[in-house]
Amino acid sequence: MATGTADERRTVYRTCPLCEATCGLELTVEGERVTRVRGDREDVLSGGYLCPKGVALGELHHDPDRLRAPLVRDGDGLREASWEEAFERVAAGLAPFLAENPRRALGIYVGNPNVHNLGGALFLRPLLKALATRHLYTASTVDQMPKHVASGLMFGDPAALPVPDVDRCDYLLMLGANPWESNGSLWTAPDLPRRLRALRRRGGRLVVVDPRRTRTAEHADLHLAIRPGSDAPWLLALAHVIVDEGLARPGRLADFSEGLDGLAARLAAFTPEAVAAQCDIDAATTRAVARELAAASRAAVYARIGTHANPFGTLAAWATELLNLLTGNLDREGGVMFPRAPHDRPDDGEPGGRGFTTGRWRSRVSAHPEVMGELPVAALAEEIETPGEGQLRALITIAGNPVLSTPAGARLDRALAGLDFMVSVDIYLNETTRHADVILPPPSPLERSHYDYFFMRFAVRSVANYSPAVFASDAPGEAAILMRLALIARGAAAGADPRTIEQENLRGLVEREVGRPGSAIHGCAVDDILARIDGADACERVIDFLLRTGPWGDGFASDSPGLSLATLRAHPHGIDFGPMQPRLPGRLRTPSGRIELASALIDGELSRARAVLAEPSRDGALLLIGRREFHSNNSWLHNLPSLIERPERCTLRMHAADAARLGLADGALARVRSAAGEVEVPLEIHAEMRPGVVSLPHGYGHRYAGTRLARATAHAGVSANDLVVGSVDGPSGNAVLNGVPVTVAPA
Predict the structure, then answer these.
(1) Do residues 722 and 677 touch, judged by C-beta distance below 8 A?
(2) Which of 93, 134, 253, 712 could make an SS bond with 638 (beta carbons 3.0 to 4.6 A apart)?
(3) Please, what are the domains in the chain?
């Protein structure tokens, strides 16, 4: 909502699109400039909380390095071009690859920022359908794919991701997460520090398991400095104690769970004593935590990227939800629950469905199984480099910088240089897009409307918030860009009208809902509903329809006070529909309609984990882990002055004892080597590190020529991913980014 005219000072309320917290912002705009950003105290979810990333939203809009026009390649360089010329170049460049059948020479990479904007969230699917390629790579396989696989196997739906009901929780066990600095991850809960302090004030207990004593660990009742990569066996040891000592209390969950009876045998090897050496957590402590967890009145186990980006990521994700189930805290107030967004379907229906499978196809070189239509991004470079039938020779990237954010980035950089054709949809000329033949820049976040399509599905309360564009733009939005690419992929001319796909997409949504028994518009005339949908553009029209047919929607009834896009426009601080509610068993989509704990895939991982227990420990080896930063979000905010122009944060952190043993001094340059490569980086001796573990932040390495990132280049740092070999968690294809063996010596 804005007040005043374009030439006056005006106040605008907006949801921050830069991370998963979705905080409400109050922007002061003078003419065409944002002059102040602060937290919206009336926002129904964030209540005024604001982190430095939100403050920098105006800097992102005004960044002189942000692209305002398409770039096309001429010889060895890129020059500005009109949108018409750019799309004609795309059509000509993709034509030979689109003619191949099957289209195995053309791939697509989708980066993290895609889920933070509405156009990408709603109109990527038509492009993927039109491309019909099996070469889909996304940031999910350097982040959360193990959680999707575990949820798919247990609940039948990889999108059924429970989140901690932190505001009603009494005991929170947290692994591999640092919300004090990164906010929530797959957990939309603005101002988590305040919520965690409140948990402790009401007598609750916070236990943090992390190789570093992070800012979150500093505020915990107990911090356990686990050995990197050993989260899965430790979680299994907790489950072993709960089952072995008769502490399991699944309650009503037992009525619709399969596989509880066989758990004792499957967990028998994972005693606290057996895993102690591997995890560096003594058996007595493990037993104490297990008993506390089982005895807590309302408890939750939350594990994130630190547990997923290791060789047993899927097993760790499965064990996390197993513990929530065994303690009766799955789908329970104060435990972990399945959020419902205002644009979701209004009811879950009867339990049951097709279930979840992986491996419908495999990658060409290393035979990695497909998961959710994706292949591991760790395999992208080898698919480009390796000759033979099906070699990847053309690539589309959307809002991503995989050269800095995926394994073996230097190798991928070399591979991208060998592509025949590349298109990038991105607002920056960065380390990845510098290889593109055409760059199509969407408008800035403040030049497009916003509704958090993805992250409302992870929110601790059911809320809805809509933000209209702050500034006008003549450039096509991301939705229009993706629809025009989809039309080109379907063989249409470069100038084809994207409204063709918009109308197809919207009609398909209406037809499905009209035909769904129990829908508020079941049996209505499709054209009548289409005529009544509100919205100035494709994204607004889709959101209006989804809201009106959602759980709190008006159902297109003229006398209903229910939700619509118009309602949200009238509530600039959002609408709160209340806390999460139980959704099981209706949320289950397994073939049995029950929670399925047993599967061949998990049994295989349990066998592999049992074998690793017998392996000797690698005493003396240093293990590399990542590091999240309060002032950053991956690699894509490093060009903003308030976030990057501070004391250099790209340092190798190490415990004092390791530094003394290796003859390293604080502030000195250190050479870090792994099987993948080496980097030289300043050393920071830090008390937060446990001995034997070193840490580098994620997303740095802005050292490549040909980019347009002046501030980022001035604070280049090194890329931790240059040290990552490319190993993956087998079931999910998620990259192994933590626990990487390295050597460190004076440079």
Answers:
(1) yes
(2) 712
(3) 1-62 (2.20.25.90), 66-133+376-452+466-494 (3.40.50.740), 146-347+584-610 (3.40.228.10), 498-573 (no CATH), 618-746 (2.40.40.20)
